Amino acid sequence: SDATHEERFLEALEESAARAHRTVQEVAPTEPGRKAPATTLTLGLWVWPRAYILQVGDSRAYVYRKNALRRVTRDQTFAEDMVDRGALTPEQAETSPLRNVLSSAIGGSLTTPVVTRVTSTRDSIWLLCSDGLTRHVSDERIAERLATIASSEQTCRTLLQDALDGGGTDNVTILIGKVRRNG
Asked: Positive or negative, the Cα torsion across 113, 114, 115, 121?
């Protein structure tokens, strides 16, 4: 948490993801015709007043404050890569067959851990989730749910139901944390 060592801290976070990647690759089954296991990672660490979000793949982190939802992470998919290069528009990427093809994953052929630093405030609500949520629930709907949060647990349950009602074709992982005032 010492600001003079922040760069080493960020490097250590990235290296921990790279180490997990290597471990998955080392223990993966090598049966012919079988795909090696791979997964995404979104991890949040808070050292007041900063949040450090480590991400690989297309799981996401959002922060909601002042009635606005902001995505903190960037999907590491081939569709998003094409948007970055100007080959697809964001609207085209939403329906592209490449939208769910990871360009970076723990255990995949390539992993590119990214750490994002964000200043957290007392009114921040944080959401970490898998693409099982964001594939079926719009950012607008997520913002509506976070605007009326009564408890993190109930909002997670409501968002899960929204994802299931929207088609629920993938696993849905949701974590919500709200910054609390002391005293």
From this structure: negative
